[in-house]
């Protein structure tokens, strides 16, 4: 299992959907990649998906 410290050292893969339970925000309400607080949200199949409008990083919440 990869922990948050390892993600900080690695480049964030913007094509991957990260699970919020495993990778919570480094700063609450901010994107881990670009530190933006501007997100678009969607629900599909009972899964809430949050996507950063600046860089496109996605987390399922």
Walkthrough of the structure:
The chain is built from one helix and four strands; from the N terminus they run αββββ. It is mostly beta strands and 61 residues long. The protein has a four-stranded mixed sheet with strand order 1-4-3-2, with no helix packed on it. Strand 3 (47-52) and strand 4 (58-60) form a beta hairpin. The longest helix is centred in the N-terminal third of the chain and has 6 residues, at 4-9. It is globular. The model has no long low-confidence stretch (mean pLDDT 85).
SSE layout and pairings?
Elements: H1 4-9, E1 17-19, E2 39-44, E3 47-52, E4 58-60
In short:
The protein has one helix at 4-9, and strands at 17-19, 39-44, 47-52, 58-60. It is mainly beta and 61 residues long.
Major β-sheet profile:
4 strands, mixed
- The overall average pLDDT, rounded, is 85
- Number of helical stretches of at least 4 residues: 1
Q: What is the succession of H and E elements?
A: HEEEE
Task: Classify the helix fraction into a percent range.
Answer: under 10%
Order of neighbouring strands in the sheet with most strands: 1-4-3-2
